[in-house]
Design brief:
homodimer, Alpha/beta knot, globular
Chain lengths: ~180, ~180
């Protein structure tokens, strides 16, 4: 089964701490297998590890300084999709991308700030989730939700210490030790 | 045409500044007509107003201290949907919600932190975008994208000073004064 990885380009310490954490957790919850940052931030790493430890699964966290090499290497085994408000409309390209995803991995790139021109050129697709300014968290979420057509909302995470049973009117939480 | 409003419950100054801004911009870009905060934050307000001023449209920004009254009043004219990781799966409820949206406005509630029990009771639907911890920005984005079935990605905003023409390989920006 092909997998999705997410590359977060850039990260401004302090300013981006929480947004980057939201990016990582969204990647995990919507079905990506790995988040790659280009800047070290111990607090983001810890937040993500804490979630994985409690909620299960094998979501990977990586820091890669040479992101150009990472992208180029990735292209040997999959397609690279850069999410940008300048890109082609996701509505039109999603069927084609979903088709390619049948046998190719996907690397989704989202920027924290202005993205170098080279990224536009390296990407197989520059895709917009609308052409209005909003949020890279929102863009990533919608892209993954559409790619997986809602299936990843049922993911079961191995070794979870805590699970939620969906309910329309109350909180139902199952803990490993049955404390609650 | 029924409209969507978004109520952001709670907001921790500094800590939530950027997340709350992303929430507001996501609401606007995905088709909501108004964001309502329960806490004043001048910097969030300014960021949103700047976007509306440049990118057009009539997205409203409001601060409401008595949110319980706001929710109760809203229920006279529409339905209230609380997005929470404990809620019923959006996959199952979206068809019904879309059907109600034909003639009723929708108020989407998302919390910044732990949400009072009363919200679960006031809401007509408590809906989860998956039952894993991720991001209220992601949850809101996916909810609106599904509600409007991608149509809002084509929204045209009146009085925009700047517009982007979607493109798969380059940045095409149109400015009011044709400077670029």
């Amino acid at each position: 089964m092909p997998v999705v990885e997410v590359l977060r380009l850039g990260h401004r310490l302090e300013r981006d701490k929480r947004i980057s954490t939201h990016v990582a957790l969204t990647a995990r919850a919507l079905g990506a297998k790995k988040i790659i940052f280009t800047v070290e931030d111990e607090s983001v790493k810890k937040s993500v590890e804490k979630i994985v430890n409690t909620w299960g699964g094998d979501f990977k966290f990586e820091v890669v300084k040479n992101w150009k090499k990472y992208i180029k290497d990735f292209k040997e085994r999959g397609i690279v999709i850069h999410l940008t408000m300048y890109g082609a409309n996701v509505n039109e390209y999603m069927p084609k991308i979903r088709d390619e995803f049948k046998d190719k991995d996907i690397l989704v790139i989202i920027g924290a700030e202005k993205v170098p021109k080279e990224v536009y050129e390296l990407a197989d697709y520059n895709i917009s989730i609308g052409n209005q300014p909003h949020s890279e968290v929102a863009a990533l979420a919608i892209f993954l939700d559409r790619l997986f057509e809602g299936r990843t909302l049922y993911n079961d995470y191995k070794n979870a210490k805590i699970k939620i049973i969906p309910s329309k009117d109350k909180k139902i939480v199952i803990r490993e030790n049955n404390e609650n």
